[in-house]
Amino acid sequence: MRVSSRSVTAAEALSLALADLAVRGERTPCQGRRRDRWTSESAEDRSWASSVCLTLGCPVLEQCAAAAVEGKESFGVWAGKDRTVTAQKRRAC
User: Fold this and answer.
1) What is the pLDDT of residues 62-87, one digit of tens each?
2) In angstroms, rounded to a whole number, what is the distance separating the alpha carbons of residues 30 and 33?
3) How far apart are CA 24 and CA 19, in angstroms?
4) What is the pLDDT of residue 57?
């Protein structure tokens, strides 16, 4: 068997962690019934999602954060942080 020396990207690491949870019959809060709140247009929904990530102790929080940084995500809640770029956030930059 040939082993690749290529390192795994953060997005791949997140996918692998999510797959591992699925094999065990588990899922993250963002995969639950209210998963639309993580990518909602509503700031209130995203705030709720952010608090759920942080208070329920998501098992892939580190991988999610790394994938968000790597992918330069600018919308939705990633690892408990609302990364949605709003007009107010743009003015602050």
Assistant:
1) 999 999 999 999 999 999 999 999 85
2) 8
3) 9
4) 86
Q: How many CA atoms lie within 13 A of 92 on its CB side?
A: 5
Fill in the amino acid letter for 48.
W
The Cα–Cα gap between 53 and 57 comes to 6
Question: What tokens appear for 55 in the block?
Answer: 């208070």
Query: What DSSP line would sit under the chain, residue for residue?
Result: -PPP-PPPPHHHHHHHHHHHHHHTT---GGGSTTGGGGG-S-HHHHHHHHHHHHHHT-TTHHHHHHHHHHTT--SSEETTEE----HHHHHH-
d(CA 82, CA 40): 11
* Maximum Cα–Cα distance across the chain: 53
Domain range summary for the chain, segments of one domain joined by +: 10-92
Q: One-letter amino acid identity for 91? A: R
> Could you tell me the two tokens for 75?
């919308």
Gap between the Cα atoms of 43 and 3, Å rounded: 45
